[in-house]
Amino acid sequence: MTAAATTKTDAVVAFRRRAELAIAGIGLAGSAVLQGGFALVIARSDDAALQATILPALRSAGLELDGAQAHVVLNTLAAWFGFSFIVVALCTAIGFFFARLRPRRRATGWWFLAAGLACLFGTQFVLYPVAFFFLLSAALFAVRTPTPRSSS
Known about the structure:
The chain is an all-alpha fold. Helix 2 runs antiparallel to helix 4, helix 4 packs antiparallel against helix 5 and helix 5 packs antiparallel against helix 6.
């Protein structure tokens, strides 16, 4: 029996990052619904819809904006949310790619950390519950290390 044959008996157990990817997927879905949904609703609303539905909701929340100012403020906020959602989605997609390609690497967690920070700062700390999912996924990449198991 050769040395190569004896090393094949120590089978390498497949290591998957299911928990990390599932948690980041939940974060991406929440980000798509909340960030992307807000950007889509504001971008698609005309002045009549803005005056009839969105401005009364803002006024009931305590924000007093007149019609022209509200339109500019909401469109700017929607553009910022949309841009930050694109950054979050790109960082998450790159993280998914590297997590599938080399699941044993812990450095992939940096992509999910970047997605969480982009979600956090891109929404001005409004979506901190959604950003928590990305930060938790990045933390799991840092904490969970693959341990080699013997086949015996």
